[in-house]
Specification:
- The chain has 421 residues and is mainly β.
- Helices cover 8% and strands 39% of the residues.
- A hairpin with a 7-residue loop joins β1 (18-19) and β2 (27-30).
């Protein structure tokens, strides 16, 4: 009898392909390409926390998901070119760090690292972190994400999702102070978010929202074929001590050609920052809430009829040294709704109604921004290179050629030609 028990223990351990050397040693889980085994094996390792090495191919089936509740570092293998060779197929919300039962959270969430894994064919969200005190999401590859049907008209999907919106019931969704905190690094990931229903899929590549006092860096990522927003940082609150910053740099973005016209008709878009869930826009101008945002050295190709290359919806944003290309006549490379932003040294190409549009939106005033724009021989504006919409005021626009359509108040124009038509 004892021999049978011992044999059964070793059989289960072999099936799970899980090696645990000690409580603090690295665990190794070897994929069996079998959903009956793989999900349980990875969950068993993740439930212990610590560092976990995933090898080979895992199949999570249609609904497989692993819940993260402890500090954990989940790492796959990669080849000599840095491409992940560890693959996880399928699943639904493959890696999920859910909100705690008591809200707002009474303690900081786990520290989470997910690195060098190829997620292929996940439904909805391959990586979904709603609760953490720091996260490193680095070197992953994401392909063939299957949109999740919310209504007959709307599907949702995201590649890397950090925040608490979708995980809460629609009727009670709200900012949860302290749910997402710490240093959040999302770097060197490769996302292809193409899907078969872009006109009704609210598709997001990298989306970080409703965090508290985070130091966020989104850098060196490649994001393709998103049908809504490719990189997005929205409604992130300063900490009680005034901490918090967002840096988005060195990313390469190519949008889908068709996007969902919801929740606004401007779609599909490249990089978006600011305040959205706070519909009044008050957070964008509140110095006790709004953190500093810097967007630099990114390349964005926005391919939709009404695309925005970049949408700026909070005060004090620096947008510099980016290359932005829009391909359709009704598109706009840079739209600024907010105040006290600095838009400078950006290379803008392609076509659109204008290169830069400053406009009001709710509590966002479109005022006191500084815009530097040189003559744009590689951009064809159907109206003017810069449009300052009605009631925008005290903006300063300088350049060496080009046109400005100024419908605002007390705007200063130097080196560009004012047009009225």
């Amino acid at each position: 009898m004892l021999r049978k028990i011992i044999f059964s223990i070793f059989l289960v351990a072999g099936l799970f392909a899980l090696e645990v050397h000690s409580a603090t040693a690295q665990q190794t889980v070897i994929g069996q390409d079998n959903p009956a085994i793989d999900v349980q094996a990875v969950q068993a390792a993740v439930s212990q926390g610590g560092e976990i090495l995933l090898k080979r191919t895992f199949d999570f089936g249609e609904k497989g998901s692993v819940t993260i509740s402890k500090d954990v570092k989940i790492v796959g293998e990669k080849d000599s070119q840095g491409v992940p060779t560890t693959k996880i197929k399928g699943g639904f919300r493959t890696f999920l760090s859910p909100l705690p039962a008591q809200l707002p959270p009474q303690a900081p969430g786990p520290k989470i690292a997910i690195q060098n894994i190829h997620f292929d064919g996940t439904q909805a969200f391959p990586i979904y972190i709603a609760y953490c005190s720091g996260a490193n999401i680095i070197g992953n590859k994401i392909t063939n994400v299957l949109p999740f049907v919310v209504t007959p008209q709307i599907n949702v999907s995201a590649g890397i999702l950090v925040g608490t919106n979708w995980i809460q019931p629609a009727a009670t969704r709200k900012y949860q102070p302290g749910a997402v905190t710490g240093i959040i690094t999302i770097a060197e990931n490769d996302l292809d978010m193409a899907n078969d229903t872009p006109a009704k899929t609210l598709g997001q590549g990298i989306f970080v929202h409703w965090a508290t006092g985070i130091t966020l860096q989104i850098s060196g990522n490649t994001v393709k074929n998103c049908s809504r927003n490719s990189i997005e940082a929205m409604d992130n609150y300063l900490g009680d001590d005034g901490s918090g910053s967002v840096v988005i740099r060195d990313n390469k973005v190519t949008t889908a050609t068709v996007g969902i016209p919801f929740p606004s008709p401007r779609t599909p878009n490249g990089i978006c920052v600011g305040w959205f869930f706070d519909g009044t826009g008050a957070g964008a101008s509140n110095p006790k809430q709004n953190m500093k945002h810097t967007i630099t050295n990114n390349t964005v190709r926005a391919r939709g009829e009404t695309s925005m290359g970049m949408w700026i919806a909070c005060n004090g944003v620096i947008v510099e040294n980016n290359e932005i290309i829009t391909e359709k006549q009704s598109a706009t490379p840079i739209v600024v709704n907010s105040a006290q932003c600095e838009i400078r040294k950006n290379k803008i190409e392609g076509m659109g109604a204008c290169a830069i549009n400053i406009r009001l939106s709710n509590a966002l005033t479109g005022s006191s921004n500084k815009v530097e724009i040189d003559n744009l021989p590689a951009f064809k504006a159907s109206v003017a290179e810069v449009i300052l919409d009605k009631d925008s005021k005290n903006n300063v626009v300088t350049g060496s050629g080009g046109r400005v359509k100024d419908l605002g108040i007390d705007n200063q124009i130097t080196g560009l030609t004012r047009v009225t038509d």
